[in-house]
Specification:
The chain is 61% helix and 12% strand. It is of the alpha+beta class and 304 residues long. It folds into two domains: 3-9 and 18-135 and 222-276, no CATH class; 141-217, no CATH class. The strands form three sheets. The chain has a two-stranded antiparallel sheet. A two-stranded antiparallel ribbon has the order 3-4. Helix 3 (74-98) runs antiparallel to helix 4 (101-126). The longest helix has 73 residues, at 219-291. It starts with a strand and ends in a 13-residue tail after the last helix.
Length: 304
Amino acid sequence: MTQSAGVVNNAGIHFTKTETEYNMKSIRFLLLTITTMFIVIAALMIVLGISVYSHYHGLSFFYESGSVGYIMTPSSLSVFIGLALLLVSIFGFFGSLKLSTCMVNVYACILMAVFIIKLVVVILAFTMDSGRILHYINVPVWGYNDPEIQQEMDILQSALGCCGSNSFMDYMGMEFTNNQTTVQATLVIDGELVTLTLPEVCCFSSAAGQCDKVAGIGCKDALVNALVQNSTVIGVLGVSVMFINLLGIIFALLLARCIRKLKSARALITWKIKEKVIMEREAEDAYNKEAGQVYIDHQASSTA
């Protein structure tokens, strides 16, 4: 074990800063840096989730209406994970500052659990099946005359450049009200010219109520394509965060090991100090006892 600068106390014990102490300081600095990065990432996830929810929460209507029960939206999932990561990071940050072996070990265990969850999410993100997602998406064209559904569908069709659920053919034969803005589109369907009445948002360009170019893709396919593309981005970001997470686990375990070694060394030094103090007191008591004794020489006996 490498020794450097030393200090001598009143009891004559020579203290030295060991290699373990220097390693512990370096590891604690790295762990605090990584934990600070976790706190920043968690805060960004919360802000991003709230921002996405405020702008696009209406689109969740289309995949929630196609499923049984409630499915957590990506924005709410981002906020939930961000809050959990923030609490865990703050716990690890204070554990590192206070050099608590228990807190640092618990922090490492929680990071391991988070690492496993992220690994599952990344695998699901890279293996997302578009056919399976279609079963969870429902674009209710049949309810377009409902003002609330119409508003949500117009936002969806305008944002993704799509028309209808499967295609613009979903609007064939639908009766629109006078309050709805529509256009006429003349299209070739099965070799015949057919004139359809479509919502204005389904048309890329129109003039005098006539649509020149209709969105050819259905909104279900457009939603699936957007989810698959975003899942790839999420997977790449997840791998990057997992690497930082793995470093956090390694440094947390190393720091806990250094803390245990340092506390053991300090306990040994304390025990040596107490032992030396006890020995010095015993020696002092023995000296005082010996100094306090009076010796009388025996006189030589004489015979008459």
